[in-house]
Amino acid sequence: MTKQAMIVTAQPEASKTGARVLMRGGNAVDAAMAAALVQGVVDPQMCGIAGFASCQIYIPGMGVHTCIDFHGKTPLGATPEMWQDLVEGETRDGFGFVLRGNVNDVGYQAVTTPGSLLAYFEAVRDFGSWDWADICAPAVAEAEQGFTVHPYVHYWWTHGAYMGQAEVTERLAFSATGRAIYFHPDGSLKKIGDRVKNPDLTRTLARIARDGAEVFYRGEIAERIDADMRANGGLLRREDLEQYRTTRIEPMRGSYRGHELATNNPRGGGIMLLEMLNILENFDLAGMGHNSTDFIRTVCEAMKAATADKDAHVGDPAFVEIPPHLTQKGYAAGIATRIEAGERMRVTRLGQPESADTTHVAVVDGQGNCVTMTHSLGMPSGVIPARSRRARAGSARSERPSSSATAPRGW
């Protein structure tokens, strides 16, 4: 089984964890969720139990092919007008808004209702083969021993903010706990090779391993989160955690040169993928030669066209009606004709890079079971309550696909 299995993650500790699960007989879901929990320990500004995003699961033996959407949700206490007077502009990547004082980006008001832990737990419960406590055990062990700062983690700490939002070091130093675990006693940021230990996270993960996601959404951890939010002007409440539900949905489907494709639905980015591939299907990319001038120009123009359509038309389907033509072959053929004629597609914010900073896990096991999951924080809020059994929180910078430019979403 293990000779035919594969796992890919953003950090070696997570990949090793998933590989060990596969070697010990766990299936793709077991490996993916164990790896994701470890990833949240060793790369804590990218993902964690208080994150959000989506997961696609394919279990042919069970006849299962589904997506779990676990995006963050706006707390019930938020109002559409509460930040209207604070808007200063848009982040340069087009994924959020810059508000005066960064209230949507750093601190307690930037925190919204998380979905990652519940999604991990439900995936193991419904499609895994291992006990939940065994899935959590590697993350507990990693948290207890602490993690070594890898080059990319440190690079992001020092170069991660380039879209108009707050500097990453501001996030790391927001709380007393953050200052204690990410900085040396002299106030300097920890460097590559330094060890980071967060005992409170170890205790939190151990409690979750024992009691499941329930303790985070309805139990003692939920109570502690609620109390801390109330004390510090946060919007999140226990009621938000109690009411949070993941969403199960059929994958969005398409095709490319005879191959069937399955990807996530909005709010995920699968719709852009399908549009880009539909456009590129009209070109002889192999004949152009990989990375030739024509190849690069064609691929870039297709990406620009899909990006412009995403900016103009795609958002949270609970609030935005997404036009069906974006995934239609005929619409893509029209764009391909324009590209072939030499037209340059336009993205208003072109010149600023899309953020490359997100976290992904992809696993296939020897039985043909597959899991592909993006699990992110959007941007970390910096909130790390001082007492134990607390979860690190992130923000999604009040992203454009939300119901309002003035309401936060995502952790």
Overview of this protein structure:
The protein is α+β, with helices and mostly antiparallel strands and 411 residues long. It has two domains: 2-248 and 357-395, no CATH class; 251-340, Serum Albumin, Chain A, Domain 1, CATH 1.10.246. Helix content is 38%, strand content 14%. Strands 1-11-12-2-3-8 form a six-stranded antiparallel sheet, covered by helices on one side. A hairpin with a 4-residue loop joins strand 2 (52-59) and strand 3 (64-69). The model is unreliable at 388-392 and 396-411 (pLDDT under 50).
Shape: globular
Low-confidence stretches: 388-392, 396-411
Topology as a string of helices (H) and strands (E)? EHHEEEEHHEHHHEHHHHEEEHHHHEEEE
Which class do the helix and strand fractions yield?
alpha+beta
**Major sheet:** 6 strands, antiparallel
| Beta strand % | 5-15%
Total number of β-strand segments? 14
Radius of gyration: 21 Å
Figure out the total of helices: 15
Short overview:
38% of the residues lie in helices and 14% in strands.
List the helices and strands and how they pair.
Layout: E1 6-8, H1 12-23, H2 28-42, E2 52-59, E3 64-69, E4 87-90, E5 97-99, H3 116-127, H4 132-145, E6 147-148, H5 151-159, H6 168-172, H7 176-182, E7 195-196, H8 199-211, H9 214-217, H10 220-231, H11 238-243, E8 247-249, E9 252-256, E10 259-263, H12 270-280, H13 285-288, H14 293-313, H15 329-340, E11 360-364, E12 370-376, E13 379-380, E14 394-395
Antiparallel strand pairs: 1-11, 2-3, 2-12, 3-8, 4-5, 6-7, 9-10, 11-12, 13-14
